Amino acid sequence: MSEYEVICVEYAGAKFSITTFGGHLLTYIPPNQSSDILWCSSCHKKDMSKSIRGGVPVCFPQFGHVHDKISPQHGWARLQKWTLLESTERSVTMTITSAENQKPGRPDGGMWPANEGCPYRARLTLTVSLTDLGALSYVMKIKNESSVSMPYQMLFHNYFSVHAEAEDFGVSGLSGYEAIDTQPRGREGMGMDYGTQGEGKIVVDGEVDRIFHGKGPVLASIARGGGEGEISVEVTAEPAKNVSCVVWNPYVEKAKGMGDFDDDGWKGMICVEPGLIDGLQMLVGGEEQILKQVIKFSK
Ligand SMILES: O=P(O)(O)OC[C@H]1O[C@H](O)[C@H](O)[C@@H](O)[C@@H]1O
Fold first, then answer.
1. Where in the sequence is the active site (predicted)?
2. Is 237 exposed, middle or buried (0-12, 13-18, 19+ CB in 10 A)?
């Protein structure tokens, strides 16, 4: 990681670490805990040729692939070097602009047109901090620095450390959301429509890869299983927008097929990923959009 900085913060009994590679949050240990509640693969790529498999990668300017298939899955923001703006006793702020990715000879920024003539200019500014009670606040601001409206999507790809096979494991808080399978295994490759999510917890009994579209903010909670407490993720957008949430666990076969994923790593993780991904989002020239998540742990 030599060309990338790793910044460690300890405040109110809690700790986090973050790197300038991808503006990637690596670890978060809540107050009075000895272990990380974020999960990271033991065999993730250490040469930065891929996004780190764990912690919190950010997906921007799109979630998933776009039609050209040349643009990187989940966008460029998680693959580039961010600039450290400020580091205080309880917070770290980093930034990146799309201009830094408009290099000759490569497609620019996912869903956006190739660099030459690309009219969009985005600045992302991420501030991660610890609250007085040691909760983790993660705030992303997108500014459209161009004069034209800019299409985008953004998502926080949180990997949490859990016991996915335990009876007391499960994700709740998404009841009433419209659930769609992200994989093309449903009707004619359009994704399977699961209908409205019921009251039950989401568990891992096979590959789980679903998008939940809701109306308004998100408050999801994850019972970690094995009596290891509960994580809550509270997400708000300013100005207000509908926040969606992806829940992902690759299960046995897909985990084995990924070179940077431990074969049985699926047993120890769940991704709960809030984002602005209900269709294309538009940001007017000169305007800002904030998406914020607060992660808390209770035993
Ligand atoms: O392997 P990555 O590009 O990091 O993507 C990891 C996963 O991200 C999301 O959760 C998607 O819904 C999954 O379909 C995808 O497999």
1. 157, 273
2. buried
The answer to whether the annotation marks 53 as part of a ligand binding site is yes
For residue 114 the two structure tokens come to: 């190739």
Tell how far the Cα of 249 is from the centroid of ligand 1, in angstroms: 9
* pLDDT tens track for 57-71: 999 988 987 655 566
Q: Which of 52, 154, 157, 261 to mutate to test the pocket of ligand 1 (most atoms within 8 A of CB)?
A: 157
Does 290 reside within a domain? yes
Q: Residue 150 above 80 pLDDT? A: yes
- Selection from 206, 202, 196, 205 nearest residue 171 by Cα: 202
Question: Band of the pLDDT at 109, cuts 50, 70, 90?
Answer: very low
Residue 62 CA, ligand 1 centroid: distance in Å:
12
In a domain, 73, yes or no: yes
Mean predicted confidence (pLDDT) in 278-294: 96
Residue 289 marked as a ligand binder = no
CATH number of the domain bearing residue 72 = 2.70.98.10
pTM: 0.94
Mutate which of 246, 249, 254, 256 for ligand 1? The one with the most ligand atoms within 8 Å of its CB, which is 246
Q: What positions carry a catalytic annotation?
A: 157, 273
Query: Known binder of ligand: residue 90?
Result: no
CA diameter of the chain? 55
Q: How many domains does the chain have?
A: 1
β partners of residue 8: 17
Show the ligand 1 pocket: residues with CB < 6 angstroms: 51, 73-74, 182, 209, 246, 248, 271, 273
Dihedral class, residue 252 (left if φ above 0, else alpha if ψ from -120 to 50, else beta): alpha
| Domain residue limits at 222 | 6-176+212-298
Q: How far is CA 89 from the centre of its chain?
A: 24
Q: Is residue 196 part of a domain?
A: no
| Per-residue pLDDT, 105 | 39
pLDDT > 60? residue 107: no
